[in-house]
Input
Amino acid sequence: MSLVLYNTLTRKLQTFKPLTPGKTGFYGCGPTVYNYAHIGNLRAYITHDILSRTLKRSGLELRHVMNITDVGHLSGDNDEGDDKMLKSAEERGKSVLEVADFYTQAFFRDTERLNIKQPDVICKATEHISDMINLIRRIEENGYTYFSGGNLYFDISKFPHYGELARLRLSDLKAGARTGLDENKRNPEDFVLWFTKSKFENQALVWDSPWGKGYPGWHIECSAMSIRYLGEQFDIHAGGIDHINIHHTNEIAQSEAATGKHPWVQFWLHNEFLVLDKGKMSKSAGGFITLQHLVDAGYDPLDYRYFLLGAHYRSPLQFSWESLDGARNARKALLDRIRALMDKAGSAENTGTQAGSSVPAGTGADAYLKAFDRAIEDDLSTPRALAELWGLLRDTKLESGEALVAALEMDSVLGLNLKAEAEGKEELSADFEREIEELIAQRSEAKKAKDFERADAIRQGLKEKGIILEDSPQGTRWRRS
Ligand code: AMP
Ligand code: ZN
Output
């Protein structure tokens, strides 16, 4: 396999070669758990999922690490604005850890519904404070810090490689220096490693440190945890494009200042944004769409996955309900084809779709599979990879069993869960759908009449038939379990 990835560090497509042959370390920046993930955030995690599935398909032994930010992330990435966790906790009348716990669980429910594989290591910032303190100590010992106004800062002018990832030039930064909001900073791009004098009087979570009681800056957590789980130099680091200028730039500065090793990370991958007609979807600006909104509107989470796969991760993608309809119809048609193949081939089991089986070399199906691999190895081109899957499924000359095996192998990267979805989700009969709607109407009447026993019995009865009811302000919707 020859995997080519676009490396933001070099702005080039480069053949991927792991530092240790056969093994790969990959760190993807995880969520800040002060609110639900919006569907834009989920685009980042689908990208990480496609990358890790591709690395595994190529036979590499993968260690995928993701952090959970539950402390230290301010609304401005450059130490400005509110503390996201604290503000959310205050608004909800909960503790910071309660908020973190609630939204962490919600996040994993979403990723599971999108068939995103769990990373090998999931690490919370609040559980790695000593790693952060140790790393900051090394940065301090190496002479890159200063203490001012109660906070410990990273001095970017001491680090000659500062801004290389974002193509920032130190001389330009100095020449264009504006007065930052934080007058303790020597350079506007300096950033806080450790806050002791909090801007927030009621800061909930504080720890002892050599610089006094306080809490870490946001960037240091990713440096400390990635180094802890992947070593002082590793292969791939990923996140959304918004992280290039500040977060990842600062992560590189801190890590290399601490270890003296350059480059810290070989490949930097950044996904483009999901946008609405109004502009970028943002968690802090509110008005965002969650996966649950899509489910409430009657879509399957995998329709959204399919929608995302239709665009390359480095292209901005405009969200619209019409496009999501298109994805839903296409996915439905895909499952129909898989079911037809299963019927013809006499069930997947008989055709050797179990682990370890493969498509015989030189067959028509094998040609499609090879083309699929070439597409996905070409900087994770999911649109071309999907086109190869469709080509395979439309090609009537192929032997059904082989076509099915090839399709399922492709799905090990696409993650559309084709086998289980096709087996488990035969079309419901029109009669049964009418019956469900009728029962929903009866349940709503029962609730109006305060007959909650009857309402619950209807819900339970439907659940036993594999139908889940979900109440929302727009009314009750149903989905299959
Ligand atoms: P956060 O939870 O805000 O730290 O963001 C989680 C991930 O989502 C990060 O990798 C961001 O770069 C990414 N992200 C944020 N907004 C979008 C968007 N609209 N489209 C795609 N990725 C996004
Ligand atoms: Zn990060």
